[in-house]
Description:
Number of strands: 8
Oligomer: single chain
CATH architecture of the largest domain: 3-Layer(aba) Sandwich
Radius of gyration: 22 Å
Amino acid sequence: MAFLRESDRKEVERRLGGLDSPVKLLLFVEKSSPLILPGRESSRCEYCREIQQLLEEVVGLSPQLSLEVVDWKEEPDRAPVYGVDKVPALVLLKGDGSDTRIRFYGIPAGYEFATLIEDILDVGRGRTGLQEETKEFLRGLEEPLHLQVFVTPTCPYCPQAVRLAHQMALESEKVRGDMIEAMEFPELAEEYGVMGVPRTVINGEQYLEGAVPEGVLVQALQSIVKVKAEDRATEGEAAMEAQAQAGVDKQERS
């Protein structure tokens, strides 16, 4: 049974007709084994088959799209290259294979399907709709930023938060943007105290609730970057003082 209805398929095909460049979809899965060993829990990726089928349908709608499916157990060296630590995981790559740092953990279904299509269009066109002030901030980043956006398929406000994270990732090599389907990864959602969605986790430490406007997210990131810069300056001053004191102690001993 197909995931996409005929009307949806035609609309997606129409939209993908605007792609200027190839886009590669790299999907990490874990294939289920028919064998269950006694005393050992079965390892199964509940939605791996579904997301693969969905992506196969999408890729079939444009000659500019391609899909590679990797079993992360059979090829264990592939996932760490992209920082993938759970499955199913979708990585969007440019046509030349370069990373966009856009990640989907869990099936991009429901409202998040539109996010997937918009992301593909951004990658294929090589541009985003972010404000110029935001792009300037991203160009000046010196430290990495990891944005994890927790969502559910039925959340109508989540795509805005995910799109912001993904657009920032596409604009800056210092940013990685993850969509995480909270119901597929309940332990991770619990770890980050996700009680409602969307929730954006920044560098695993700071949180933003709800679908905040672009400017609000930028302000939050600017504050984090400023604190990091101040911490580095303090550490540098402390190191210099320690080095100077070590020189004084050495002279006194001599």
